[in-house]
């Protein structure tokens, strides 16, 4: 099982996401699903780690363990948005699953 560490983020928007990508080399993302009671959880991940993990087939087909501020979520990749011609990931969506 692949494990990823993430940080919860409280800001959203185009300007914040661009700053997150360019200055901090992080990737904005979101977790949807049944395990989250109120609303989707906004997160940020390290871009390079996700970029190299997504080259494996297991990244898309298996359950991932996502640790956000000491909370564990079992997730699957729902959607990845990529840059049109650069080798960059712009945004990633996860869906929370029950185990």
From TrEMBL:
GO terms for biological process: translation. GO terms for cellular component: ribonucleoprotein complex; ribosome. CDD domains: Ribosomal_L25_TL5_CTC (cd00495). The keyword Ribosomal protein applies. Keywords: Ribonucleoprotein, Ribosomal protein. InterPro entries: Rbsml_bL25/Gln-tRNA_synth_N, Ribosomal_bL25/Gln-tRNA_synth, Ribosomal_L25_dom. Residues 4-94 form the Large ribosomal subunit protein bL25 L25 domain. One of its GO terms (molecular function) is structural constituent of ribosome. This is 50S ribosomal protein L25.
């Amino acid at each position: 099982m692949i494990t990823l560490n993430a940080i919860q983020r409280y800001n959203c928007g185009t300007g914040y996401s661009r700053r997150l990508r360019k200055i901090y080399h992080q990737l904005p993302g979101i977790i949807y699903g049944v395990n989250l009671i109120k609303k989707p959880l906004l997160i940020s991940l390290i871009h390079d780690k996700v970029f190299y993990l997504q080259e494996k087939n297991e990244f898309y087909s298996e359950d991932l363990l996502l640790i956000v501020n000491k909370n564990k979520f079992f997730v699957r990749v729902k959607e990845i948005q990529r840059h049109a011609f650069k080798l960059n990931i712009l945004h990633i969506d996860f869906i929370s699953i029950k185990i």
